[in-house]
Amino acid sequence: MPAFFLAISVLALFACGFIFYSRYLAEKVYRLDPAYVTPAHRYRDGVDFVPTNKNVLFGHHFTSVAGAAPIVGPAIAVFWGWLPALLWIVVGTIVAAGVHDFGALVLSVRHRARGIGTLTKDVIGARAGTLFLVIIFFLLTLVNAVFAVVIGNLLVANPGAVIPIFGEIPIAIAIGYYVYRRRSAALVPSLLGVAALYVLIWVGQAYPIEITGLAEALGVEQTRNVWIVILFAYTFFASRIPVWVLLQPRDYINSHQLFVALAVVLLGVGVGWNTMVAPAINAVPDDSPSIFPFLFITIACGAISGFHCLVSSGTTAKQLDKETDARYVGYGAAIGEGTLALCSVLAVGAGVAATQAEWDGLYADFSTASGGAVGNFVNGVASFAGNLGIPMDYAVVFAAVVVISFAATTMDTGVRLQRYVVQEISHLAGWRRPANSLTAAGLIAVGVPLALALLPGGGDAGYAFGVLWQLFGTTNQLLAGLALAVIAVWVLKRRANPLAQLVPLVFLVGMTTWALVVNLRNFIEAGEWVLAPLDAVIFVLAVWMIVEAGRAVAGAWPDRRGPARRAPSEELEEEVNP
After folding, report:
1. Which of 182, 388, 510, 540 falls between 20 and 30 A from 343, CA-CA?
2. Structure pTM?
3. Residues 133-153, buried b or exposed e (16+ Cβ, 10 A)?
4. Does residue 252 contact residue 190 with C-beta atoms inside 8 Å?
5. DSSP string of 319-335?
6. Domain spans of the chain, in order of start
């Protein structure tokens, strides 16, 4: 089948979801009110609370949520066939991710732009709030570990990407200082930053940097592990400096990169008229993970991601100009991430191989599929870029830089958020040192995922990536499930229909607990006495979440009766409590 037809069909479905389903959510479920005074105006301080044009805010939000995960997950999941992967991406994006991201944003805006963890305590209860913190800790640990492995593998496989990736850091810092000191718009400086980055790709091709000799001198068996240590050392310091110095200007640069990458894939597919050489349904080996439930865990970001509720209720809620903009920003960005996941499926299904026999060699078993997924995406995007006349060597480095940049930005944000969570948990537990010390909290935030990323387990294609990705997916879906439960309780209390939240909530809980049970059995049988306890803890959190969510929904269920609550602008805003 021509990949272009698939791309057009999926994009048309996404457009229908935004036009019709998001309108239903906006008008009937979340009941957006154009007269509502958002926190950006109510608490405007010029620093965190800043009313922002919806197009600019969309770019910030989209870049923040669209890291490497919607690339990696679908690139692995095509192992079961491109059809089930695309079906979950389409259905998950329209009826789950959009509902979750949109709802978390509106809920936060209605509660002084407070974070989803604090809102969980208010809406459901203190125990659920504690649960949320613990789940976030595990999620961020796994996010930082798996993305460090992704970046390490790519830097080893693509030494030409080293100079542009590390060269982006001083470029971003220069842009940050210029924008902050001059109080100027970031558009032109960030476009110049992208141009400088693409020049550095040529430099990186001419002067590739390999550190195999350094790894051998240090007695490190896997060169990737040296890069992992370097990355965590970098993020330890990067997470301590103000966001305007590095994190925000890198977001400016990467937002443009993101749209360039999407254009290269979609235009390349059309110009080259590539066909899907991957099978629609793949006959996987008997010892492979089952498509149920693991497809829905492997593709988390790109279908639904709990990480997004942290962004929606974090920086985005503080910048929303009008409440009605939440539909465009929240639901629209979910559609954008689904589009990125679509591009990943196209790259590994139509771009990376010329025949099905060649593709079968790349996806011979699940370990091979997971270990080579990122490389397959890079080569697939390079093939599409070649259709547009871009030299293949440059295109490969370009695609690698795109993935590494997204993953590095996510790591920067993840380690910073992990430090916040460590301090909050330490405060609740009465641990004074990590609660009050940036250094102590930062060392914990870096040390735990670093240890997990370096854990031995079968080389570059072993469980250190494939299985950790599954654990990341389950934790991510747990977080999304709890966020949907919080949103559903709030919707019930406002006497609106909660089915839009409850249906994906029940599905996610079922798939997550099923995957955890299967993995726990496999880990015990294989004698994996690090991963087995980790899986068991996450399983306990899942059961705890089911109990808390069930009790909260049952308690709020009687509120669905009676006339609908008045328009938000006429309410006394009982949601806005100190």
Report:
1. 510
2. 0.90
3. bbbbbbbbbbbbbbbbbbbbb
4. yes
5. TBSSTTHHIIIIIHHHH
6. 3-275+288-570
Q: Are 97 and 332 in contact (CB under 8 A)?
A: no
Neighbouring CB atoms inside 10 A of 218's CB total 12
The torsion region of residue 573 among left (phi > 0), alpha (psi -120 to 50) and beta comes to left
Residue 155: closest CA among 404, 352, 455, 377: 404
Q: Which amino acid is at 578?
A: P
Amino acid letter, 118:
T
Q: Which of 507, 474, 370, 476 is nearest to 91 (CA)?
A: 507
CA-to-CA distance for 251 and 338, rounded, in angstroms?
19
Alpha-carbon dihedral sign for residues 535, 536, 540, 546: positive
Cα dihedral sign for 139, 145, 148, 150? Answer: negative
User: What is the length of the chain?
Assistant: 578
How far apart, in Å, do the first and last CA atoms of the chain sit? 57
User: pLDDT of the chain along its 578 residues, tens only?
Assistant: 899 999 999 999 999 999 999 999 999 999 999 999 999 999 988 767 888 888 878 887 888 888 788 999 999 999 999 999 999 999 999 999 999 999 999 999 999 998 888 888 888 888 888 888 888 898 899 889 888 988 998 999 999 999 999 999 999 999 989 988 888 888 899 999 999 999 999 999 999 999 999 999 999 988 999 999 999 999 999 888 887 788 778 878 888 888 899 999 999 999 999 999 999 999 999 999 999 999 999 999 999 999 999 889 988 999 999 999 999 999 999 999 999 999 999 999 999 999 999 999 999 999 899 889 999 999 999 999 999 999 999 999 999 999 999 888 888 888 988 988 898 889 888 888 988 888 999 999 999 999 988 876 534 444 446 677 888 899 999 899 989 999 999 999 889 999 999 999 999 999 999 999 999 998 899 888 878 898 999 999 889 888 888 888 888 887 666 666 544 443 434 444 43
- Return d(Cα 143, Cα 232) in angstroms, integer: 13
Structure tokens belonging to residue 250: 């890198």
Contact criterion met (CB below 8 Å) for 273 and 4: yes
> How many Cβ atoms are within 10 Å of 178's Cβ, its own excluded?
14
Q: Under a CB-based contact definition with an 8 Å cutoff, are residues 503 and 98 in contact? A: no
